[in-house]
């Protein structure tokens, strides 16, 4: 960070150096969030202050080396309680976390710049309300960390989030949690690992935009979620895994989901492709342009095969006529997402970026509808 001032501005070298520092701070912030389940409050505050000091130091450096504009007024404010950069780096380093293992590059936090999206809603005001709810939740960073604990862990600013593309997939452990709650994220690929197999008392996904969330791994070992709730999601791919009870889906737009459950209830959704394995008749209400297909073979376990799949026996509570409901349909077999996309692209990895996966899943559905 001290070398930024000496870095050449030619060819964007100084910008690259700043982005490298931003990505490092974002990585440290993500690691502290993931470790907050077992860190004492005192240590959490210490690491939070260290990360804050690093962010302030970088901002101060950027302001110092930035070209000065003419006829501008600037005030400076020094933080008397700030610790030195060297002490902050020592505190924030992974070696300073007792009992904490540093995450690998594929386990680190990631957030790329959110993309613009255009969708419509079942009612004129529903899209605006849902979009506002998602934007407010993301802006508030309500889920820091994922389980909503660790109030002392600070949220990082937008520049840090945008620079965190150095790490492509986030894998929160949920090692000390009884449930999985993922909320307020944009342009993030999240994979819930096998360490969360004991945290399946319930699952909750809310306020997501342009995200990929894969919860299939912990539930594939014979420990399904007791229940699942999904609310206010747009332009996302959700692999929900197995649910031993009801799955309630509300306010989802322009998305694709795969889920196995005993009961399926969908409300106020539009433009959603559902790859479903359901032990009872699925129910939709106040929905539009919902399409169903059977769950991909790669997610079907031996325990599911003994249960008849009623994925296409949909009841529309807002359609009482004898004619088929116009609010849902079956995805033709030749237009369904290919099996290799589910097995090779969706899990992520080299050559499979978030935008590419969303284009291969959600983008395919959009092109078919057009």
TrEMBL record:
Positions of the C-CAP/cofactor C-like domain: 171-319
SMART domains in alphabetical order: CARP (SM00673)
Location of region: Disordered: 96-133
Low complexity compositional bias, start-end: 96-123
Superkingdom, taxonomy of origin: Eukaryota
Keyword terms, alphabetized: Chaperone, Cytoplasm
Keyword Nucleus: no
GO annotation terms (biological process): post-chaperonin tubulin folding pathway; tubulin complex assembly
Pfam families (UniProt xref): TBCC (PF07986)
The keyword DNA-binding belongs to this UniProt entry's keyword annotation: no
Location(s) in or outside the cell: Cytoplasm
InterPro entries in alphabetical order: C-CAP_CF_C-like (IPR017901), CAP/MinC_C (IPR016098), CARP_motif (IPR006599), TBCC (IPR027684), TBCC_N_sf (IPR038397), Tubulin-bd_cofactor_C_dom (IPR012945)
Main location: cytoplasm
Signal peptide location: none
GO cellular component: cytoplasm
UniProt record similarity statement: Belongs to the TBCC family.
Name of the featured protein: TBCC-domain-containing protein
């Amino acid at each position: 960070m001290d070398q930024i001032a000496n870095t050449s501005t030619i060819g964007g070298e100084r910008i690259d150096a700043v982005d490298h520092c931003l990505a490092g701070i974002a990585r440290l912030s993500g690691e502290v969030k993931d470790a907050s389940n077992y860190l004492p409050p005192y240590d959490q505050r210490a690491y939070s202050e260290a990360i804050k000091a690093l962010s302030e130091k970088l901002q101060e450096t950027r302001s110092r080396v930035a070209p000065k504009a003419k006829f501008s007024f600037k005030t400076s404010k020094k933080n008397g309680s700030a610790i030195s950069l060297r002490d902050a780096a020592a505190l924030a380093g992974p070696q300073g976390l007792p009992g904490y293992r540093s995450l690998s590059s594929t386990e680190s936090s990631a957030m790329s710049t959110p993309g613009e999206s255009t969708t419509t809603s079942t009612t004129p005001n529903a899209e605006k309300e849902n979009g506002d709810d998602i934007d407010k939740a993301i802006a508030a960073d309500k889920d820091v960390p994922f389980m909503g604990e660790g109030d002392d862990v600070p949220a990082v600013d937008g520049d840090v989030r945008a620079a965190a593309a150095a790490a492509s997939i986030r894998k929160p452990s949920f090692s000390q949690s009884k449930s999985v709650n993922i909320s307020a994220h944009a342009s993030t690929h999240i994979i819930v690992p096998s360490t969360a197999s004991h945290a399946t008392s319930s699952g909750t996904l809310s306020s997501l935009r342009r995200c990929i969330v894969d919860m299939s791994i912990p539930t594939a070992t014979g420990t399904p979620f007791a229940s699942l709730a999904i609310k206010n999601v747009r332009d996302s791919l959700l692999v929900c895994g197995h649910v031993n009870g009801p799955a309630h889906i509300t306010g989802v737009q322009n998305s694709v989901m795969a889920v196995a459950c005993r009961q399926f209830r969908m409300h106020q959704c539009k433009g959603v492709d559902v790859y479903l394995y359901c032990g009872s008749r699925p129910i939709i209400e106040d929905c539009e342009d919902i399409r169903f297909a059977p769950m991909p073979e790669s997610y079907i376990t031996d325990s599911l095969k003994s249960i008849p799949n009623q994925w296409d026996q949909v009841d529309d509570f807002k359609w009482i006529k004898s004619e088929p409901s116009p609010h849902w349909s079956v995805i033709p077999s030749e237009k369904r997402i290919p099996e290799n996309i589910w097995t090779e692209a969706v899990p992520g990895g080299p050559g499979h970026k978030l935008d590419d996966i969303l284009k291969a899943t959600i983008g395919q559905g959009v092109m078919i509808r057009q």
